[in-house]
Design a protein that fits this description.
The protein has 434 residues and is of the alpha+beta class. The protein contains 18 helices and 15 strands. Strand 10 (246-250) and strand 11 (259-264) form a beta hairpin.
């Protein structure tokens, strides 16, 4: 569908501005790196507490590259699946794959200090040391601004380890694609990202063959949604900590399911179990664009990783990962790592894997309900060229509930209402048990 101007004339080369205006930006950062005129920079929208691109109209020549590579307004899953895997996926929830596993790194420190099992970290280290890649696009928390992420190209084992652990805040990972594009001709790279990051990279590779040749490994992280910057502010407020007092902030690590580390400039350290801080309040600070995503398992990656939320692993204090191997290269790397006893893997049935990821169906089965409400209020929605299941009637009520609390989270003066949500969550849990 053509984008129309105010004069009702077709705009042949829309820019990233169209995406921002329609509130469809994921903040992935792809447009910043892919723009041939360096006309785009990322800024933090103070009201929405997310990254959004800002276009310099003087530098822009309306080439449209930013819009074509943007995953915010559209992801043609059918076309990309055919391009990447040569077929459409048989499994609607998981995407195309060769095999599924649970596993972990055998190095205790890597496993203990990661989010779940340390497999992403160990895979990247192995690929680097074996000469498969020359670097990896990863993200660490900034030392200068400890509440902000810092995407970069890691070229050493130490740098890869520094980037381990989950980041529960907006991450514009793809701004680091610029360094990959400017790297030496024969260098190869891995990229690590959430579904929106991988979507942007895959779209960018369609229009930039140089990028496609340089990136040989796409590692995807399972994602329900990210947390906007207000989530961290809310958390610090609960803990009565001023943001200028924070020296370091890690959202995960210290075993599994892990704990948050907050180190203050005074030298004091606080460790908070994930079950204590990632509750129904913190989990309400959701960018609205995240609610329109259909991809939980990072289907367009070469290999995908997630937490192994399985009943039989509930007592595992070190952590295991769920792994979906999607092509021959990643399968070969995994088996080589197993043979050298760098990692341990156990095959798992795809149905069991889906059981470990309760939000898979939230992303797929209930997406039409959230799309319905966006359309109802005249909002633009992304195009996916993907079949979606029909939701149940109660799913519409759940969507209304979701957007109610997203609205409350967006208004600081309403944060006190989260007490009601906690109270209701406890009562719901109680009635489920009896």
């Amino acid at each position: 569908m053509a984008i129309m101007t105010s004069d009702n004339l077709p705009l042949q080369n829309p820019t990233i501005n169209e995406v921002v205006i329609n509130d469809l930006c994921t903040g992935c950062g792809t447009c910043v790196s892919i723009c041939p005129n360096e006309a785009i920079e990322l800024t933090v929208d103070g009201k929405k507490a997310i990254y959004i691109p800002k276009l310099n109209e003087d530098k822009c020549n309306n080439c449209g590259v930013c819009y074509k590579s943007c995953s915010g307004h559209s992801v043609n899953f059918k076309k990309l699946n055919l391009e990447i895997f040569g077929k459409e996926p048989d499994n609607v929830l998981l995407g195309s794959y060769i095999d599924c596993y649970t596993g972990h790194a055998t190095d205790y420190d890597i496993r203990y200090n990661a989010a779940s099992g340390g497999l992403v970290t160990q895979l990247l280290i192995f690929a680097l040391e074996e000469g498969i890649i020359d670097g990896a696009l990863v993200t660490k928390m900034s030392k200068e601004h400890p509440l902000e992420p810092e995407p970069f190209i890691a070229r050493t084992k130490e740098e890869i380890i520094e980037a381990s652990k989950s980041k529960y805040c907006p991450v514009p990972a793809n701004i680091a694609l610029k360094e990959i594009l400017e790297s030496k001709e024969d260098e190869k790279f891995a990229v690590v990202g959430l579904p929106c990051h991988i979507h942007g990279i895959r779209k960018a590779e369609l229009i930039n063959n140089g990028l496609k040749e340089k990136i040989i490994l796409h590692a995807g992280i399972f994602c329900v949604h990210t947390i906007n910057f207000s989530g961290s502010e809310f958390l610090l407020q609960r803990l009565k900590i001023e943001r200028n007092e924070v020296k370091k902030m890690n959202y995960r690590g210290e075993g599994w399911p892990g704990s948050m580390l907050i180190e203050l400039k005074s030298g004091d350290k606080m460790f908070i179990q994930i079950s204590e801080y990632y509750d129904t309040r913190f989990g309400s600070f959701i960018p609205t664009r995240c609610t329109l995503c259909s991809d939980h398992a990072c289907e367009l990656a070469d290999i995908s990783f997630g937490d192994a939320w399985l009943p039989e692993l509930a007592n595992d204090i070190l952590g295991k990962s769920i792994i979906i191997s999607r092509n021959e290269l990643t399968e070969e790397i995994l088996q080589s790592m197993v043979s050298r006893k760098i990692i341990e893997l156990n095959e798992i049935d795809s149905g069991k894997l889906a059981q470990s990821q309760g939000m898979l169906r939230f992303k797929k089965n209930r997406l039409k309900t959230r799309i319905f409400f966006f359309k109802l209020f005249g909002k633009k929605i992304p195009s996916y060229n993907q079949k979606l299941p029909r939701p149940k009637h109660r799913d519409y009520l759940m969507a209304m509930w979701l957007y109610l609390w997203i609205f409350i989270a967006s208004k600081r003066y309403l944060w006190g209402l989260f007490t009601i949500k906690i109270w209701m969550a406890k009562w719901i849990s109680y009635f489920r048990l009896i």
